[in-house]
Amino acid sequence: MTRVLLVDDDVELASMLREYLEQEGFEAGAVHDGEAGVAEALSGRYAIVVLDVMMPRMSGVEALRRIRAASQMPVLMLTAKGDDIDRIVGLELGADDYVPKPCTPRELVARIRAILRRTETAANEPGGPLRNGPLTMWPARRTAEWDGRTLELTSTEYTLLEVLVKSAGRVVSKNELSEQGLGRPLARFDRSIDVHVSSLRHKLGPRPDGQSWIQTVRGVGYQLVREER
What is the topology classification, in CATH, of domain 125-224? Predict the structure, then answer.
């Protein structure tokens, strides 16, 4: 069974979510502070981490920072409703997605499944590598290289970049990116796609002419510059 790690100092909530996850066919573990969360997340026993932002000893943001320093495993953040700062910081540090609290167990499970489904579907896709300019991606392995060097991407970053590469030279709407990259429709005022794309731009660096590889088409979405090699 797929193992999910819950990291939340609300013991009662974590227990309820754990019970619901197990009813839905997952195996779940729970710890209640950031330090224990980092140690468990890096143990190799879990497929995904659900990480609360507000916790004692070590915040969820700092825990995410430490997890990302050593692993690209999927991380779903639990943020206070309307707290855009923590949400954006979490995405900038490499969270795959977020769920605002309070949330229903059903919504949380749907988000977990969406993240895991993207990873598993891509891993089972046949075919050779995708190439665009200095970028090469292997969907079956979910690995990427830039000019022959490993490109470190989170699960969501990889999925979004793959969507853009497959549509290189064509504008991809933000809603399409959200549906395919996050597994959910784009919500009003949701900046998740913008933050993930900003991170991708930073990792890809500029083109020789100084422009970004990923161009913004105002009011529509994003386009990866097509380049043959």
Answer: Arc Repressor Mutant, subunit A (1.10.10)
